[in-house]
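Bumping with the actual sequence this time:
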Amino acid sequence: MAGADAPPAAIAAAVAGGADWVQLRERALPARALLAWCDAASAAARAAAGARGVRILVNRRIDVALAVEADGAHLGFDALDPARARSLLGARRLIGVSAHAPEDVVAAARAGADYAHLAPIFAPLSKAPERPALGLAALAAACDAGIPVLAQGGLEAEHAAGALRAGAAGIAVTGAVLGATDPGAAARALREALDAAAGKEDA
């Protein structure tokens, strides 16, 4: 996940390092500036991904997601409900929902969301904790809801195997990559850890 304090070059480095989804998340910018930043960030991410491709999600702002031809929108607790978002985004684009408990993921699945972020699994790296860490048992419970769950909050390379064993479809990070001195190397370490963990799960 990236905010406007992350330059497009850092986002591109993360994608080049193996990030396959980018969520553009910024509340402070006015509409015109937000659109310009999302446009620049998504263009940089797509160029870095090349033929491999990358999914771009815009946080909350359906209008901006449509304008930059994003792959979908991620809805926070104060955003549109998934059904309304679906009517605006259409059937092809992804709709994600933030969740802070397994029952939130169940509700998101019933509402028609395509995936959910469950947070915080561990204490966040990018900000002071706002609520207790949920841990891997809660993640496992949420993964029974019927939609893919991305584990979020304090996820570093050493946590990848545990998150996947708990049933997560992947991990969502901010500080572990964009807070690193070398975002590309940090993303590469996470990608390698996830791929190694997924390989063990498939074996």
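The tokens above came from a reply further down the thread. The mean pLDDT is 92.
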